[in-house]
Design a protein that fits this description.
By secondary structure, the chain is of the alpha/beta class. Helix content is 32%, strand content 22%. Bound molecules: flavin-adenine dinucleotide (FAD).
């Protein structure tokens, strides 16, 4: 395989990073203050802020508000190189990775490639369900929802129309809950105005969670409050019921019942996609890559894994740290410090996660926050959620756009992004 051209040999050591998400971009930001040469590889040329994907899917935000070009973030930086490429194989013996555009050697390799949706081996669901892991997924959901309502108008009977109105969301984690809440608000405040000929009282938004409660990572009280909020918005929440099959219209449930929906969004699990060249034994529970306390892949000397891909088992986190943005960013910061130490021959320091709490929003003024030693709900939780997300979005223009969108939507409940724009496909392609 040819080598990726136009990246000079490093004057010092080269760090190759796979993935420019939360962990990868934070790693680059910190590494820029060191003497390492940095090569960032990502299959997309932009960073995406996944916590707000559901707002793009629900026509609340434009895709560009939560995406940021990687080249723009690290413009005019010496010793930094970005290539839009998918990494297909790691070759630890040769200290090289293979990508869709060629190979590149590394002194240190960092796997920060995140996770993919887990269908737990159910091929039918994988084929027919919608996922929400990327901006493209979110646009696809947005278009499909709008298209379903347009199509629903073409039918004469309720029976024919019903599957186009119903929406099924699987997974009662933050993504499923936020999506369901947002859809509940759409149904209540927006859709009846856009489609006066359709009777949205007949539309049902179902949220299925196989476990005993929604938001299982949050405190019991917060989980109960979220359930109350969802019910207030008219969502049919069912816990202890798993979705077992979906053929594009019929949803099969673990209680033997079925229901009809043209749209099923799967947010019920994630897994790490296998990376060729890495020993199968390195992939632990959830497919996460087994690493030691300093995020070094077990058995390797110079390969590290951080963020959602990595699994550090500690006494406090025997099943690994939560797969959230804070862990990814804190792990990245610690790794930079450790790479500098390793270079200097100093003992690296194990990663220690500082848990700042968890939040989820169900709708306008309806949120829950579990902070260390303190839980609260309602308007103040919603305000805190909004501020934290606004501050975390990359780019001042994006912050302003999101703020303006949220401020207008708060008062008029009517986002104007319900546009069915599809990519053009050439004939025969
Ligand atoms: C819908 C949704 C809502 C969420 N809400 C929250 C929330 O409210 N709060 C919170 O803290 N966390 C939330 N999360 C989780 C959070 O987004 C993740 O924990 C975080 O993104 C992990 O960062 P990461 O860098 O490990 O992976 P990612 O941010 O996923 O980045 C991985 C990057 O790797 C790239 N990549 C993957 N494979 C390859 C390859 N083979 N070659 C090249 N590039 C590759 C991808 O393009 C991507 O840019 C949410 C996630 C989702 C999907």
């Amino acid at each position: 395989m040819k080598y990726i051209p136009n990246i000079p040999p490093p004057a010092t050591k080269r760090v190759v990073i796979i993935g420019g998400g939360f962990a990868g971009t934070e790693l680059v930001k910190r590494l820029l203050k060191t003497s390492f040469q940095i090569v960032l590889l990502d299959k997309n040329n932009f960073y995406q802020f996944q916590p707000l994907l559901y707002q793009v899917a629900m026509s609340g935000l434009e895709p560009s508000a939560i995406s940021f070009p990687i080249r723009r973030i690290f413009r005019h930086r010496k010793r930094f190189f970005f290539r839009m490429a998918e990494v297909t194989k790691v070759n630890p013996e040769k200290k090289e990775v293979e990508t869709t555009i060629g190979a590149i050697s590394y002194d240190y390799l960092v796997l920060a490639s995140g996770v993919t949706t887990n269908f737990f081996g159910n091929k039918e669901l994988e084929k027919k369900a919608f996922t929400m892991k990327s901006v493209s997924d979110a646009i696809f959901i947005r278009n499909s929802i709008l298209e379903n309502y347009e199509k629903a108008l073409d039918f004469e009977t309720d029976e024919e129309r019903q599957p186009f109105l119903n929406l099924v969301i699987v997974g009662g984690g933050p993504a499923g809950v936020e999506l369901a809440g947002s859809m509940g608000e759409m149904k209540k405040f927006i859709l009846p105005k856009d489609y006066p000929e359709l009777d949205f009282r007949k539309m049902t938004v179902h949220l299925f969670e196989a476990g005993p409660k929604i938001l299982s990572n949050m405190r019991e009280r917060s989980s109960q409050t979220a359930l109350k909020y969802l019910k207030k918005l008219g969502i049919n929440v069912q816990t202890g019921i798993a979705v077992q099959g979906y053929d594009g219209e019929n949803v099969t449930l673990s209680n033997g019942k079925t229901l009809k929906s043209k749209m099923l969004i799967w947010t019920a699990g994630v897994t790490v996609r296998r990376m060729n060249g890495l020993d199968e034994k390195l992939f632990g529970p959830g497919g996460r890559i087994l690493t030691d306390g300093i995020s070094k892949v077990k058995g390797s000397q110079n390969i590290f894994a951080i963020g959602d891909t990595s699994l550090i088992q500690t006494e406090k986190y025997p099943k690994g740290h939560p797969q959230v943005a804070q862990v990814a960013m804190q792990q990245a910061r610690q790794l930079v410090k450790n790479l500098v130490k390793i270079q200097k021959g100093i003992q690296p320091v194990p990663f220690k996660y500082t848990d700042k709490g968890m939040m989820a929003t169900v709708g306008r003024n309806l949120a829950i926050a579990d902070l260390p030693g303190l839980s609260f709900k309602g308007f103040f939780a919603w305000l805190l959620w909004s501020v934290v997300h606004l501050v975390s979005i990359m780019g001042n223009k994006n912050k302003l756009v999101v703020f303006l969108d949220w401020a207008t939507n708060y008062y008029i409940y009517d986002p104007s992004l319900r546009l069915l724009i599809k990519p053009k496909i050439r004939n025969g392609e």
